[in-house]
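Continuing the batch. This is chain 6 of the set; chains 1 through 5 are on the previous pages. Same settings as before, nothing changed between runs. Recording input and output for traceability.
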Amino acid sequence: MAEISAKAVKELRDQTGAGMMDCKKALAENDGDMTKAMEWLRQKGITSAEKKAGRVTAEGLVDSYIHTGGRIGVLVEVNCQTDFVARNKEFQALVRNIAMQVAACPNVEYVKVADIPAEMIEKEKEIEMGRDDLASKPVNIREKIVQGRIEKRLKELSLMDQPFIRDQNITVEELVKQAIAQLGENIQVRRFVRFVLGEGIEKQESNFAEEVAAQMGSK
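Output for chain 6:
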């Protein structure tokens, strides 16, 4: 695989308007070929998505999804720019897919990594730094390992970083970018909430044999 220089990444970014990480990935996937990398970005809908990312999204849909016999429920809000797109079947299908994704990902708590509170990240770092398997390693090595673990952990909490349940080759973020390219508007997943039946309730455990014995003894 060709080594990807910062200059090549910047050049591709200037030509397409795509994000730095997307440009680097595009070049890596195409052995540094600029033309093929541009085509790759267009196929993914990334160039269009980046150009529209700053547009205000005040319309959209709140949708729900109920799963496994009413034991899991999801509400999700996805925003777009116009009511016209909000009523589009493709947009509605996207919102439904995102709601199903949330239902399928019990560990996901935030829309994107940037939404995760700094204090939570610091707490995770403290926990990882105190792991026994790192105790004998030099501080600089320990910090690099911890950083890698933290980045992995944060992505596990982020909806946009999850592999799409219907196509594991793309993430939810890439799914949204494809919809942006198709529908021609900025689209943002704003928020979601997941309900799990009985979650947080302490269920009383009873011993059936003891109950029967107690009843027989009282007669």
